From TrEMBL:
Annotated ranges, domain DNA helicase Pif1-like DEAD-box helicase: 14-128
UniProt GO MF annotations: 5'-3' DNA helicase activity; ATP binding; hydrolase activity
Species of provenance: Elysia marginata
Protein name, as recorded: ATP-dependent DNA helicase
GO biological process: DNA recombination; DNA repair; telomere maintenance
EC number(s) per entry: 5.6.2.3
Substrates-to-products reaction catalysed: ATP + H2O = ADP + phosphate + H(+)
Gene3D superfamilies recorded: P-loop containing nucleotide triphosphate hydrolases (3.40.50.300)
Keyword field: ATP-binding, DNA damage, DNA recombination, DNA repair, Helicase, Hydrolase, Nucleotide-binding
Domain named DNA helicase Pif1-like 2B: residues: 207-251
Cofactor or coenzyme needed: Mg(2+)
UniProt-listed InterPro entries: DNA_helicase_pif1-like_DEAD, P-loop_NTPase, Pif1-like_2B_dom
Domain of life per record: Eukaryota
Length: 263
């Protein structure tokens, strides 16, 4: 049993922002644990002094239950299913709406083959092979890329980083892709930002400490180039759009100052 407490005081900057809100959109809700949404529900009730769900704010949940469910450490299938929104008391207040038309295919004129393939995977009707603990999904040959550089050049054809993205399964893969993209950028004005640590400050070797990259923290050695993309890791000024996950384009920099532009 987990207990959720309101951690955002009503007189806090974020609390005041929530008092002004009347509509919230939460995407990929199928991947989030119900405890997070329940904590948000209780926090908004406290902040807005209203006992209605989410403090009376209309909340739009978006997601696809064919996709990955919440990650539960060492959790079996029943534990994983029990952690979803559908197993929460909040689900009784949800009015499900199903989207039946692929607007991306309709508006862009793209082929519907890939969309249909993803739907078949989600429905379990694609080509599969039995495997220990489940099954393996057979992927079309045209979805494979043998070299990372080929993948990068395919996605960033003209190295325009502000319109295209690459999704990575792990942080280490993302770091490796980022390094490759920077090396392929035509600009040569590379800048290094390094967090210096004195030799006697820690009982561990500096080389070991520098290799650590905890989630939510920048790397010890940060390589940047003009027009590359950076992401904010803190909620510095949510009211003006500077919050966790905001992307910027590096326009210029000095030894101690970055001059990014909001993307």
């Amino acid at each position: 049993m987990k207990t959720q407490l309101a951690v955002c005081p009503p007189n806090d900057a974020n609390g005041k922002l929530m008092q002004l809100a009347n509509f919230i959109v939460i995407d990929e809700v199928s991947m989030g644990q119900k405890f997070v949404l329940e904590a948000l529900d209780r926090s908004l009730q406290d902040i807005r002094n209203c006992l209605r769900p989410f403090g009376g704010i209309t909340v739009l949940f978006a997601g696809d239950w064919r996709q990955v469910l919440p990650v539960v450490r060492h959790g079996s299938r029943p534990y994983i299913v029990n952690s979803t929104l559908k197993m929460s008391y909040l689900w009784t207040y949800v009015h499900p709406l199903k989207l039946k038309e692929n607007m991306q295919v309709k508006l862009t004129g793209e082929s519907a083959d890939f969309s249909n393939f993803l739907r078949s995977v989600g429905n379990g009707s694609g080509k599969t092979q039995a495997a220990s603990g489940g099954f393996k999904q057979e992927l079309p040959a045209d979805l494979f890329v043998r070299k990372k550089d080929d993948l990068i050049r395919f996605v960033f054809q003209d190295m325009t980083l502000d319109t295209d993205w690459l999704l990575c399964a792990t942080n280490s893969s993302a770091d490796e892709i980022n390094d490759n993209v920077l090396s392929l950028m035509s600009t040569n004005d590379e800048k290094e930002y390094c967090d210096l640590v004195e030799e006697n400050e820690h009982q561990y070797p500096i080389e070991f400490i520098n290799k650590l990259c905890p989630s939510g923290l920048p790397p010890n050695l940060l390589l940047l180039k003009k027009h590359c993309i950076i992401m904010l890791l803190r909620n510095l000024d949510p009211q003006n759009g500077h919050c966790n996950g905001t992307r910027y384009i590096v326009e210029n920099y000095t030894v101690t100052l970055l001059m990014p532009q909001l993307q």
